[in-house]
What we know:
Elements: H1 2-25, H2 36-52, H3 56-72, H4 76-92, H5 96-112, H6 116-132, H7 136-152, H8 160-172, H9 176-193, H10 196-212, H11 216-229, H12 237-251, H13 254-261, H14 271-280, H15 299-305, H16 333-338, H17 357-381, H18 414-457
Amino acid sequence: SQNKTMAHPKKAEALKHLKEAEKAVKTSMLKWKPDHEVASMFFDKAGTAFRLAKEPESAKQAYIKAADSHNALGSPYHAGASLENAATCCRDLKDLKGSLDMIRQASYAYRSSGKPDAAAQALEKAAKMNTKQGDLAGALELWKEVYELYHDEGKPRQCKTPLEKAIGLAMKLKLLDEVLVLLDQQAEILAEVASAGFLYQSLLGKVVVMLLREDGVAANRVYDEAIATHSGFATSTEGDCAADLLQAFDDGNAEALAEVVARQTFGFIHNDISVAARQDLKVSDGLGVASPSASSVDPVRDALFASKPAAAAAPAAPKAAQPPSGGEQPPSYDEALTDGDKPKGKPVASVEATSSADDFMAEIDRELGPADNDDSDDNDDNTNEDEDDGLGVANDPAGNEQPEESEPVAPSTAEEAVSAVVEEGSNQNDAEQGTAEVDTAEAGNDAGEGEDDDDDLC
């Protein structure tokens, strides 16, 4: 009853102020222009009296009329103050939409008067009131407008708080796509005005949000872009946490995931993101929420932090032997042994490399063919020349004819052909060594005979 008694005098006072304000805006034959200066003053007084009289609807209408009078006088700042009071009345009426509309108009009026700080303060006050009343969506919109206001005014340092508030509200509302947009804006601001540590915390938070969206491929892409854009992120504690977190999801390792999110580094990122990471991040079916192919799109992280060796690549099919490129070829083993007896300037023929055993055998036959003809000529002429090819008849220095070696049989395989060539060269080396020993003995005999002749002469 006491409240009603006090309400009546305030309501009567409000009605009196409202009557004076309406009289000031009226025109007549003797009064051609409304007196907005007087009207705005009485409308504001009426609105205040109506609020005290617990008449929020009447108070709202009085404040709106006061704002119109202030605008007519060219005073947007005072108009913004009246609209801000009208927004408060809308909140008392539980008209959150109307309150938000009034606040936006007030903010615009403050900015028009060159008072951006007043506009931001009005939006912040309204955002806090909406949060307290449970209107998280309305508060989120208001904090975003505060950020845009400071960003447009070129005040990046003032953008940090509204962005953090907006990210927290978006996380509570599970608007993960909105959170990603806000985190991108936060990273841009932090890269300009803050230390690298705060920036890396924001980037780690973005990786966590991508995993909360169950998009492992996008999380790996965010990590790769962070490394490519910010060189220190890979070696930071936040970068290590991001890499280990992605690896835990790729491996489907729940224990590794719990160990990573329990690290102190996760306590430094945004609180709402940290809580969501510890409560909502889960791995399932041994693969985690990340796509099974997530690791394949992140070669940098796999190379640096892979816990398992990469699968061995399938062995490549053997390539067919290719003939050597142009130019003089190295001599064969047989020609290298007999090269000293050949005339200078004569090109040394060689067995060209072949891709099959049959071709190699044909080359061996061509090399051995002329040597066989030379042996037959040596046998027919019955000469005492010692041939280095080792295939004809050779006479030792004592004149004893050596038995003719049997004609070599063509080998059936490439290995036998190579063995035959090596054995032939060995026989020739033995023959040359024997010849050198006989020559040395003859030289000694000649020297002895010379000494005997000298003794006879004496």
